[in-house]
Structures are given as C-alpha cells and as structure tokens.
Amino acid sequence: MKGLLICTEKLPVPPIRGGAIQTYIAGIVNILGKHHNVTVLGTSDPSLPQEETRENVRYVRVNGQGVFELYAKEVVQYLRNNSYDIIHVFNRPRLVPLIREVCPRARIILSMHNDMFDPAKIEPDVAIKAIEETERIITISNYVGKVICELYPQAASKVRTIYSGVNLDVFVPWERSQTAKQIRNQLRSEYKLNGKQVILFVGRLTPKKGADVLVRAMNELSRRHSDIALVLVGGSWYSVDKVSDYVAYVRALAARSPVPVITTGYVPAEQIHHWFWAGDIFVCPSQWEEPLARVHYEAMAAGLPFVTTQRGGNPEVIINGNGLLVEQPENPQAFAEKLHTLLSNRDLQRRMGNAGRRLAEERFTWSRVAKEVLQVWNG
C-alpha cells in the first residue's frame, strides 16, 4: 500500500529543529516503512534536501514558508501529480477537504495533536467536511478527543486515542549509562549545580507553559530547602533564541530568586536528553489546557519523578504513582508543596522515577505507537 504522511508547515521532518509532531512522525515512520511504501511530505529547510530516501522512507519537502495557505497550495500541487492509497494528515484538518478534491479515492486519516478544531482556527463548515471525509481521527490524548466530540458529536465514532511514545535508547536513566554519568557531571559542574537537587523545566518559554510560576515557587521552597536549583531549558520558539518580552520577564524573576535559576536558552533537539540526565525532578507547569505534553514521556523514560498540572491531557500520564498533580497551576504555592514532598524524600523520588521508566518501557515505545497506527492503516 502506498502511504503519505503530511506534516505541518511549521517545522521539518526529521525533527532537526524540534517539534512534538515532527518527533512523533520520526518515531514511527521507519516501522511503517517496513510494511508499506511510505512517503513523508513536509516543509523545506535550508539544511535538508528537497527530496531524499532514508531507510526505505521517501521524504519530499515543499516550500510552505511556515504559512498554512502557501503550504496547502504546495501540498495540493504535489497530490495532483502523485497518488496514494492512504493519506495521513497531521494536525491540519483544514487540509482534508482540499486533499479530497484532488484525491477522490484515497483513504484519509487525521492525527490531532491539539485544538485545531477550535472554531477560532477552522470554519465550522470546513470542520464538518473534514470529519466527513476522514476515515479515522487519531488523538494523542483522551482530552483532545473529548474536546473534538463536544464541538462535533458526529466525530465520536471516528475518534481513537493513540498515546505518543519516546525513544528509550536516547532517554535513559543516567545511572544506566557511563556516557550519561559523564554528561550529567559535566553539566552540573559547568553550571555550578554540584551538591544541588536540580528541578528541571523543558519547553518553550511562553506564558502558557508557566515557567514564571515555577520560578516564583522557588521563593517558598528556598525557606525549606537550601540545596536546590532550578534549570529552565528552552527558548521562546523551536530552534530560536530570540529574547521575547516573556523570556526577559522570566530572566528578571530568575535574577531575583533566592535559589540559583539557570536559563539555558534554546538547546538543539539532539541534546535535550542531556538535561534530563542532569536533573533530579521534572516539572511541567502548564497553565493552558495542554493536549498532553510529550516531555512527560521523556521524563519518565529518563527515570525522573515529575510534577504536572491538572490541565488538558496531562493528568492522563499519572499512572501507578509515577508523578504528582498540581490542581491549582496558577498558584506558585501549589508547586512548592508538591516539590517539597519530593525534595524531602529521596526514596520517594527513586520509586517514582523507577515507576515512570517501567511505564515508558511497557506503554510508551515507538514500536507500540507504530503498531497501533498500522492497525488503523490496515483498517
């Protein structure tokens, strides 16, 4: 069967500039390519060729310039000249009716990673048409599926949750690898973190991700714990180190914090796991209805206990005591309390971290994700 995966216009595949959707596609595509004739259609990048084949998978890149309308034209033009049995669209329901016009017989699958069915992002008549023309809607969390079905109840029979995955060979507990131990020691030495319990944030520095709330939580924590530090890994946008107003605000808070706060700026995707090795406790302080942040899987795979928020799909990854849930994400005190629980009990940290790694091995492998996607493809 000839299959086409269509990525979004924002970032390229492979995920050389990061991105959750790009990472997802890269995680499953080689396995799909063993069973079917697979092409990935995505946006161009100066460091990647317009066309190439890697491990039985063909990559075609068109110049969408990060703008949906331009990208959609390029996608439609490509499909006028190339036919596929199955077309798997990622997170762009607006593409579906356009694809159907030029591919009347193709089976269309839609993967949803966030709120692109929100009426502010798609006209209701276009959304209804997209649902009608789609055979199956895969969501990365039950929360994403629930929101779609609340807006469009007719989608209910087509929605299926397939949780994302993580590379268990890259994200490993630091104790299991000599290389990881060396990198952990190097980073902790370089950033003066030796002897500290390191609290870790990994993500874009934007208001909805909540790094500022986490920095403010340090004020309370510093009264109870003298041996802590906070590391904020990430820039304002993938592969960008621009200092936005919010980044400047977070850095100003960090400068006044009674606890050492390190802001790394943008870290290349292929080095992110180094910081999971350097950290001790991971925190996802999301302020918005997060679809389900993939950093949870990375923290679990790295054997870190984590604290997350009761927002969107995030609570769905708290299973068998692998993490703690903050019910008032806007309140720094709420984070301080949960972090105090972990910081005061190294044995609890270890047990939670081990539970997370076990869970990642059992449920969140890319081979499991690919197997479930293949089930959908094979009908």
Automatic annotation (TrEMBL):
One of its GO terms (molecular function) is glycosyltransferase activity. Gene3D superfamilies: Glycogen Phosphorylase B. Residues 188-358 form the Glycosyl transferase family domain. InterPro entries: Glyco_trans_1, Glyco_trans_4-like_N, Glycosyltransferase_grp1. It comes from the Bacteria. Signal peptide: none annotated. CDD domains: GT4_PimA-like. Keywords: Glycosyltransferase, Transferase. Residues 22-169 form the Glycosyltransferase subfamily 4-like N-terminal domain. PANTHER family: SULFOQUINOVOSYL TRANSFERASE SQD2 (PTHR45947). This is Lipopolysaccharide N-acetylglucosaminyltransferase. The lineage of its organism: Bacteria, Bacillati, Bacillota, Bacilli, Bacillales.
